[in-house]
């Protein structure tokens, strides 16, 4: 037995010589702790109840053997020899998979069992029973993720007397014989055996019939043998049983009541006014069942002790290295590492370090720390942190929601409001369909000229009503000549009969009125009762919010990066995108400079999937792009103007390169171009504003003059003493930084500063960290949706404290400790609902929160729901249950 304390092996050997017997760990009070150390108990019990390979593992192993030995037929003397070698390799592969050692293989060859035990272990899949109880209490939707909610009891379909009958282990217990109503699930699984009535009637054993509602009531019976308790032990298969010291104690209490309290329905286990913890504490377990519940936790104590021994061994090896007396430490450490179960608690004493100690930092950490210090020095030198202004906040109206709801309910409310806005576009489409279904005027035997000159100024609208609507919209928005030309191109195209698909690009620097053209076009379609034909999209949430639109990722269901690799192209997301695109004929995408060649390819491919039109760019949908290529480039990938993208498919090109090429070729279809040159944002302005506008225009072409440089320097506080960043207008304005580390440093400084200046208490909320790791020790990027949930590694208080002290740069710039106070200005980080202005970059003010204490960490609070008020949102937002 590798990895077990040698002293423990001596104790075990001595006890065995004295005739002492090992007992199963769930069926005796001491659970063999009188004869061995805790760390060895867990190892041996795992070995005793170890199950065989799964079917998919066997086939996977055989498949791997075939894949690695494709040339074995050519290398072998005959087909029989090749088959013999393949079978031998399969046997060796399966042997290694089930961890058969030399002694065990010898026992098998001699016909002896690999172990001797006084008990038999009955496989018991416990999870379906617990899930059935939770579903009846309608708790699955709030307490478990989609994977757990969809986990159902397997129902076996069998033929009985020519009829198909469903068999469910859960129903076997719920519809058990009436004489066994007082038997709990654990005893029922342990002592009951289901047999055919034809067999039972021939024997002498007493039996019971299932409840009349059971599908096997007329064909099978149950033999309940209480003596099976002496030799049969249920072996829990599936996810590990919950620990009594876990964070979710309600789940633990629910599982224990499911196992050891009789029930026919989940509603029998507790009253509606009780929690699972209250019901667990109130229920009187038998002495035998209380012992089993206690022994279930012994398993985790064994694992904890084993991991403690592993940590002590590592510390001992480290000490030996320091004394230069180490001998074969690498092999010893590796042996212990093989026995370490990655799903159990890892003490982590050797991982805890002082995050603020420069001596324990590497090159990367030191560089990030230096960047944070640079940001602090720059802000302090500019006087940003100087002075305490003592501004008191108005607390006359404290924030209080109308109803306190759990986080999942608030998410549903936000999602519902988002869907309501998206569905408002469908309302006009449904009304139009209803009007068409009632029938229109009979079609006259008439002919109409199909216009093909909607791009030209001489294009005339023949219909009077259409002309009046267009004139009204132009009068309302007062567009200049360039803007009106862009507007008329799209508007004329929308009233043309079967025109070619429009591929249009509206260019122009910031302030030339591209957004105004979008607004005018939206009014045009709304005035005609065709709001559903026109949607506005953008690559970022902030840009989409300014246009009261959506991101093309969410609206079209486009995944990029790792999410795209892990998700299928079709599925439910495609069905939802088709629903949102119903009736849409024109898509306006702003900020084209941030769209890469690959992004444009993905948009094109997605629209083809939605419309099922593969031979037309964008599936035949009219697409208008707008933006300024002198502004922000794509966050990832090549810009549409990049010369690094090949216009032809190269041999052996990667999939990404092929998509870039296809995206560039799609960009070449945009042959209708309108350039807006007149700056409309800074009209009737001061001399300084005109100088700024002129400098910005020349800056985009790299033609700044000395006068421009001198003027821009006057806007820097260090060159202009009249600029005070502590001015009320600037004190809490958003700051653009070069690095996220600068942002982290400024946020930490400003949190304390804001609370001090306004006399508010700064509240700290801590993260709840868990580490999940696959049981085979490999690191997976994404958990399987159908596989069993990974058992989290419990973090010790020391490791958790070290994580809380770590800077945000170590966790994707998400602080482990979030400092907040009422009235503090904040900025939304993620695009949760761009239609509601809940988007990345949207400024807001903290109004309140709900939190809870972290179990095992007194005084430490974790944030559950944060209530904020958006600052100048593009779209007014009023959520239910909020003032």
From TrEMBL:
Example GO biological process: DNA repair
Required cofactor names: Mg(2+)
Lineage: Eukaryota, Fungi, Dikarya, Basidiomycota, Agaricomycotina
Family statement: Belongs to the helicase family.
EC number assigned by the record: 5.6.2.3
SUPFAM superfamilies named among the record's database cross-references: P-loop containing nucleoside triphosphate hydrolases (SSF52540)
GO molecular function: 5'-3' DNA helicase activity; ATP binding; hydrolase activity
DNA helicase Pif1-like DEAD-box helicase domain span: 479-689
Signal peptide: none
Keywords: ATP-binding, DNA damage, DNA recombination, DNA repair, Helicase, Hydrolase, Nucleotide-binding
InterPro entries referenced in this protein's UniProt entry, alphabetically: DNA_helicase_pif1-like_DEAD, P-loop_NTPase, PIF1_helicase
Lineage top rank: taxon: Eukaryota
Pfam family, one: PIF1
Gene3D superfamilies according to UniProt: P-loop containing nucleotide triphosphate hydrolases
Chain intervals for the UniProt region annotation (Disordered): 768-792
Name of this chain's protein: ATP-dependent DNA helicase
């Amino acid at each position: 037995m590798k990895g077990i304390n040698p002293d423990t092996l001596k104790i075990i050997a001595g006890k065995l010589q004295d005739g002492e017997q090992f007992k199963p760990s769930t069926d005796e009070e001491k659970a063999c702790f009188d004869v061995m150390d805790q760390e060895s108990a867990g190892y041996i019990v795992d070995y005793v109840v170890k199950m065989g390979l799964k079917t998919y593992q066997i086939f996977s192993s055989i498949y791997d053997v075939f894949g690695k030995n494709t040339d074995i037929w050519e290398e072998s003397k005959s087909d029989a020899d090749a088959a013999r070698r393949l079978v031998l390799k399969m046997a060796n592969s399966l042997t290694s998979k089930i961890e058969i050692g030399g002694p065990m293989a010898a026992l098998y060859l001699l016909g002896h069992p690999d172990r001797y035990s006084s008990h038999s272990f009955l496989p018991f899949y416990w999870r379906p029973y617990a899930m059935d109880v939770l579903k009846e209490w309608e708790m699955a939707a709030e307490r478990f993720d989609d994977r757990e909610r969809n986990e159902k009891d397997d129902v076996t379909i069998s033929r009985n007397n020519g009829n198909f009958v469903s068999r469910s282990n859960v129903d076997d217990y719920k519809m058990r014989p009436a004489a066994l109503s007082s038997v709990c699930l654990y005893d029922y699984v342990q002592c009951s055996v289901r047999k055919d009535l034809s067999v039972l009637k021939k024997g002498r054993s007493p039996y019971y019939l299932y409840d009349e509602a059971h599908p096997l009531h007329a064909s099978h019976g149950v033999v309940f043998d209480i003596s099976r308790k002496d030799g049969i032990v249920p072996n829990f298969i599936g996810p590990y049983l919950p620990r009594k010291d876990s964070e979710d104690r309600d789940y633990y209490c629910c599982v224990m009541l499911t196992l050891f309290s009789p029930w026919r329905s989940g509603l029998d286990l507790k009253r509606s006014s009780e929690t699972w913890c209250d019901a667990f504490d109130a229920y009187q377990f038998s002495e035998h069942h209380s012992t089993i519940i206690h022994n279930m936790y012994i398993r985790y104590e064994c694992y904890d002790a084993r991991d403690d021994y592993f940590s002590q061994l590592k510390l001992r090896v480290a000490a030996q290295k320091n004394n230069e007396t180490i001998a074969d430490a690498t092999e010893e450490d590796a042996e212990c590492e093989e026995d370490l179960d990655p799903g159990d608690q890892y003490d982590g004493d050797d991982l805890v370090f002082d995050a603020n100690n420069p001596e324990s930092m590497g090159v990367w950490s030191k560089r990030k720390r230096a960047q944070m210090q640079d940001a602090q020095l720059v802000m302090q030198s500019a006087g940003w942190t100087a002075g305490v202004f003592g501004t008191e906040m108005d607390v006359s109206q404290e924030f209080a929601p109308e109803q306190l709801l759990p986080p999942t309910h608030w998410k549903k409310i936000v999602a519902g409001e988002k869907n309501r806005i998206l569905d408002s576009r469908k309302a006009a489409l449904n009304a139009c369909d209803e009007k068409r279904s009632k029938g229109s005027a009979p079609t006259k035997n008439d002919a109409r000229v199909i216009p093909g000159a909607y791009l030209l100024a001489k294009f005339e609208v023949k219909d009077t009503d259409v002309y009046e609507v267009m004139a009204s919209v132009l009068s309302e928005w007062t567009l200049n000549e360039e803007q009106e030309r862009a507007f008329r191109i799209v508007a004329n195209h929308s009233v043309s009969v079967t025109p070619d698909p429009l591929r249009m690009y509206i260019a122009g620097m910031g302030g030339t009125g591209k957004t105004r053209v979008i607004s005018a076009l939206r009014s045009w379609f709304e005035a005609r009762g065709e709001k559903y034909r026109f949607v506005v999209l953008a690559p970022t949430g902030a840009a989409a919010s300014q246009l009261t639109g959506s991101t093309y990722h969410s609206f079209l269901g486009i995944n990029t990066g790792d999410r795209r690799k892990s998700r299928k192209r079709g599925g439910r997301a495609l069905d939802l995108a088709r629903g949102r695109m119903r009736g849409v004929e024109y898509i306006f995408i702003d900020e084209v400079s941030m769209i890469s060649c690959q992004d444009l390819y993905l948009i094109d491919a997605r629209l083809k999937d939605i419309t099922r039109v593969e031979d037309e760019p964008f599936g035949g949908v009219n697409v208008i792009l707008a933006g300024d290529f002198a502004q922000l480039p794509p966050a990832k990938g090549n810009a549409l103007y990049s010369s690094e993208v090949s216009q032809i498919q190269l041999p052996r090109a990667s999939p990404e390169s092929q998509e870039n090429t296809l995206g560039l070729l799609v960009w070449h279809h945009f042959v209708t171009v309108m350039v807006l040159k007149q700056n409309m944002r800074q009209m009737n302005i001061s001399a300084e504003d005109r100088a700024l506008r002129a400098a910005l225009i020349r800056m985009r072409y790299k033609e700044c003059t000395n006068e421009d440089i001198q003027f821009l320097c006057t806007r820097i506080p260090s060159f202009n003493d009249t600029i005070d960043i502590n001015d009320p207008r600037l004190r809490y304005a958003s700051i653009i930084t070069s690095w996220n580390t600068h942002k982290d440093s400024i946020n930490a400084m400003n949190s304390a500063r804001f609370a001090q200046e306004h006399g508010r208490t700064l509240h700290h909320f801590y993260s709840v960290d868990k580490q999940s790791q696959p049981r085979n020790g490999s690191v997976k990027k994404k958990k399987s949706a159908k596989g069993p949930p990974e058992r989290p590694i419990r973090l010790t208080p020391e490791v958790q404290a070290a994580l809380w002290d770590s800077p945000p740069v170590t966790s994707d710039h998400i602080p482990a400790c979030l400092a907040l106070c009422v009235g503090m200005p904040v900025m939304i980080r993620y695009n949760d609902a761009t239609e509601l202005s809940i988007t990345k970059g949207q400024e807001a003010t903290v109004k309140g929160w709900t939190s809870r204490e972290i179990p095992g960490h007194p005084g430490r609070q974790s944030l559950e729901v944060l209530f904020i008020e958006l600052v100048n949102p593009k779209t007014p937002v009023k959520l239910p249950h909020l003032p």
